Amino acid sequence: MTPPPPPPAESVSAMMRPAPAFKDSRVNRDLLRPMEGVSLGYFALLATTLFFMQLAGGIWIYQVYKGLGIAGYAHPVFWGAYIVTFVFWVGIAHAGTLISAILYLFRAKWRNAINRSAEAMTVFAVLTAAQFLGIHVGRMWKSYFILPYPNQRGLWVNFKSPLLWDTFAITTYATISIVFLAIGLIPDIAIARDRATGWRKLLYTVLACGWQGSSKQWKAHSRTTLHLSGLATPLVLSVHSVVSWDFAMSIVPGWHATIFGPYFVAGAIFSGFAMVLTVMIPVRRIYGLERYITDYHLDNMSRFLLLTSIIVGYAYASEYFIAWYSAVEAEQTHFWMRAFGPYWFSTWCMLTFNGILPQLLWFKKLRTNVPFLFVLSIFINIGMWFERYVIIVEGLSFEHVPAAWGVYTPSWAELGIVAGSFGFFGTFFLIFLKIFPVVAIAEIKELEIHERVHGEGAH
Amino acid sequence: MPTIVGIFERPNDVVDSVNRLKGRGFTDIETYSPAPFAEIDDAVIEKPSRVRGYTLVGGLTGVVTGYAMTIWMANDWQIMVGGKPFSSIPPYTIIGFELTILFGGLLTALGLFIVGKLGRKRNPEYSPRFSAEEFGVVVKCRDRDVAEIEAVMRDNRATEVSLVS
Predict the structure, then answer these.
(1) What pLDDT digit, counting tens, does each position of A329-370 carry?
(2) Does A154 contact chain B (CB < 8 Å)?
(3) Which residues from chain B sit within 8 angstroms of residue A11, using beta carbons?
(4) A/B interface, count of CB pairs below 8 Å
(5) ipTM of this complex prediction, to 2 decimal places
(6) Does the pLDDT of residue A17 top 50, yes or no?
(7) What are the sequence ranges of the domains in chain A?
(8) Would you call the peptide bond into A342 cis, given omega within 30 degrees of 0 as the criterion?
(9) What percent of chain A stands above pLDDT 70?
(10) Alpha-carbon distance A135 to A362, whole Å?
């Protein structure tokens, strides 16, 4: 005997009704808007960055044809503007991971407004930097020689070389920052997917990987973010230390210093934050994101700039002090030449823009003064490029034997490719701006819902 | 099997209703939220996420690979410097460290896809409102429990309760 089927509950049929239309959230609307439509100004900017990128590409092809002779390399300086720019862009790349990983572990909620753009900048800056290694070695197509791969000669790379450490550090950093960016983007792409039409719908459906925000997914996602932050925190501190060891492991005066690790890391974070300000201040203004990237965020970023400027300034001072205190003539001569030799201009740019100008940020009025911050951030970018120029070029110019001294000037080809690197970075960022949300929507929403439930300022 | 979807506006209401439903013996519960809320995820899934195992395995694989690769290569292509041993452990620590992070990070990401069941079709109960600002609690139950679940949800300030199948 089979039991009769249970009678349907009375409320069941009454409950079977189409879901009413729902209200979309303001955060979604505000933060998806920058992705819609392209203005004339956007096209003009994209055309400019593309022009510089093409210019650099053209010069690079000419350099491949003519050889590295068209770069300004001349005895004794064989690490010039390309390596300077490589270190510069790796430095820029540090803000993203600092904001997304370290500030995440410290539960600094203000990072939410800027972490996405900073992570994207990290990825593009590392990609820009990596190209300079290929450009610098001349025969870019043989760059893979640096990797340990089985070959007919039975030869392996020498892992005692700092250049090998750098290869591994940069490759790991590029991979992990791409993973970090992608994982953070998944929930936001799902938001865009639910609201998009046409080709965007298809693109986001594929990229969202079936994200639906279930507790299973969020739980795994939060754990993944935590672990990636835990892994990326020592990584971000190590990458620029390893870059600095490219120099510090040698015996060149001005390079051979134990302070280089922390000195370079502080400088990297300093320049990275400056670049985030340079890029985000116009984006905030153009797309009306003032509600999300507030004065409070600018103030916090300025404090970071001030802190790292003091660390960098301290490093400059201690370099001079140790050179004097060491009583090593080569060191002393090197640092004398820095300030008063042929590269005095670069040195004073570096000291003024990185050590002195940012001290203005002690004033709260200036920390929230947007035009001032924008101008200051550009000065810091210039100053940080000159810092690397001073360290790298100056070190090689005045080594131990005065008879072997020589002065380097970047050639037109080098300057063109350096300018082009900004075009490359800018092009990628502008395209990113139109395809992905530039502010982490889900994380902003978390704060907003929290505030709605617990009242203003509860977090 | 009936599937009931309750719509909520506040994360704490979701937590309360999940806890009460679980207390009454309903186990097939899934929630949908527009942003990460640890309290909701912990209420639905009590155990820590299995992603941590992936990180551990990845990290350990990385550190072993880093040291093994460098030591083996140094001995396979020997460079004699002043009669010192071919492999030199301190600099190889850097490679070991970088590969720990690299493998650990990649496996963590893989863990997210496997544990979070990404790369599959969305559940039929999913609605774009869960990527706006509302929360969903979805319970699969027997026909006779529908009224009880609805009462629990409404009692916890559900703005809407509907039966989708």
Answers:
(1) 889 999 999 999 999 999 999 999 999 999 999 999 999 899
(2) yes
(3) 146-147, 150
(4) 223
(5) 0.94
(6) no
(7) 39-147+157-454
(8) no
(9) 94
(10) 41
Lowest-pLDDT choice from A120-129, A309-318, A450-459, B4-13: A450-459
Given the structure tokens 């819609």, which residue do they identify? A36
pLDDT score at A229: 93
Query: Cβ contacts of residue B149 below 8 Å, gap of 6+?
Result: B4, B6, B21, B26, B139, B141
Q: How confident is the model at residue A16 (pLDDT cuts 50, 70, 90)?
A: very low
From B45, B98, B117, residue closest to A168, measured CB to CB: B98
Which sign does the torsion angle of CA A294, A300, A303, A305 carry?
A: negative
According to the 3-state scheme, what is the secondary structure of chain A? CCCCCCCCCHHHHHHCCCCCCCCCCHHHHHHHHHHCCCCHHHHHHHHHHHHHHHHHHHHHHHHHHHCHHHCCCECCECCCHHHHHHHHHHHHCHHHHHHHHHHHHCCCHHHHHCHHHHHHHHHHHHHHHHHHHHHHHCCHHHHHHHCCCCCCCCCCCCCCCHHHHHHHHHHHHHHHHHHHHHHHHHHHHHHHHHHCCHHHHHHHHHHCCCCCCEHHHHHHHHHHHHHHHHHHHHHHHHHHHHHHHHHHCCCCCCCCCCCHHHHHHHHHHHHHHHHHHHHHHHHHHHCCCCCCCCHHHHHHHHHHHHHHHHHHHHHHHHHHHHHHHHCCHHHHHHHHHHHHCCCHHHHHHHHHHHHHHHHHHHCHHHHCCHHHHHHHHHHHHHHHHHHHHHHHHHHHHCCCCHHHCCCCCCCHHHHHHHHHHHHHHHHHHHHHHHHCCCCCHHHHHHHHHHHHHHCCCCC
C-beta atoms of B108 and A9 within 8 A: no
- Confidence category of residue A25, pLDDT binned at 50, 70, 90: confident
Cβ within 8 Å of A, B 34-93 = 34-38, 40-45, 48-52, 55, 59, 69-70, 73-74, 76-77, 79, 88, 91-92
> Domain A39-147+157-454 is classified in which CATH homologous superfamily?
Formate dehydrogenase/DMSO reductase domain (1.20.1630.10)
